Structure formats: structure tokens, C-alpha cells
Amino acid sequence: MTSISSDEFDRLLRTFEHQSSHLEARDSYGTSVELPYMAKWLAGESDDLAWLDDWCAILRQHVAAGRTARRARIVSEPLSDYQRWSYSIAHPMVDAGEDIRWVPRRLVSSIGIPGNDFYLFDDHLVVFLIYSGNGLNAAYETSTDPADIELCRSAFAAVWKVAVPHHGYQPA
Q1: Exposed end of the chain (fewer CB within 10 Å): N or C?
Q2: Positive/negative CA dihedral, 144, 96, 31, 105
Q3: Cβ proximity of 137 and 10 under 8 Å
Q4: How large a percentage of the chain has pLDDT more than 90?
């Protein structure tokens, strides 16, 4: 596996050719970008979600070019605070063209999934997202190993089969 920088990862998010498949399996994250907005939400403060505009613009560009962005979130129920917040802010991304789906953790007990969240780009490059215990991103590890690609492809396909589209998911 090869480590890449956050800038290189951002480039991959913008330049895949056909499809991006993203599997999330943690109940909380601590991304430095998101934490201040989640804190506002927890305090009951409003958020215009303008901080998502750049990502939504990228998603609209992908859709206009015929590319697909899919995200499956495996979640424990009832949802953690992080996932409740994440659910509450997903609509602009869904409206921009990202297919976000929710998967209650009880539905994936017999599905083999990788030990880390990942992005699979065009079925030929996987980026494993390595997090520290507090949910902050620690590293991005890439692989083109056919076994890693197949593991992530098959895991995502199996999870996607039981996933509920964002607009149809009602958090417990």
C-alpha cells in the first residue's frame, strides 16, 4: 500500500472517470472541517450549510459528466449524535447527485467488509481511510492490488444491496 497526502486524495475525489463508491462504517468521526458545524447543531444553532457548497459543486460536475458518486453508511441504531447530524445535513449532497444510502448495522452481520472505510474509484484504485481513535483522519492508504479491489468491490455491492436510499431511510 502507498500513503498519499490529503491534497492527492482531494484530487482523486475530483478526477475519477466513471464511479466512486464510498463505504463508511464508523458511528462517529472527528473531521476538523465538520466538528465546528456539528457543535453548532448540538447547541441547537442554525447552519446554512454553505460550507458544503464546494463539495456539492463537485458532485454536480460529476453528474453532468455522467459520473456516479455512491456512499453507503453502515450505522448503529439508534443513531449516534454524529450520524443524526450527518443525516440532517445530507440533503444538499443528495440533491447535488450523490447517492447516499443508510444501512442499519444489524443488516451487515454476515457481510465481510474491510477493516477500514474506503473509496473505490473506477474499480481499479482503492483508498483506505485510516482514522485515529477519536475519529480524526490519520492517513490515506491506496492499493491497486486485485485482491483489495475485489474485497472492496464485493463488500460495497453486498452492503449496497441492503442499503436504504437517503429519502427512504427513517432513523430509529
Answers
A1: C
A2: negative
A3: no
A4: 91
Write the pLDDT tens digit of every residue in 88-121: 999 999 999 999 999 999 999 999 999 999 999 9
CB count in 10 Å sphere of residue 5: 10
- 96 within 8 A of 59, measured Cβ to Cβ: yes
- Residue-wise pLDDT tens digits, 121-152: 999 999 999 998 887 889 999 999 999 999 99
Mean pLDDT of the chain: 95
Looking at the DSSP assignment, which residues form a beta bridge with residue 4? 140
Q: How many residues does the chain have?
A: 172
Cell 427512504 locates to 168
Helix axes 35-42, 81-88, angle to 10 degrees: 100
Burial string for 62-76 (b: 16+ CB within 10 Å, else e) reads beeeebebbbbbbbe
Query: The whole model's pTM is what?
Result: 0.94
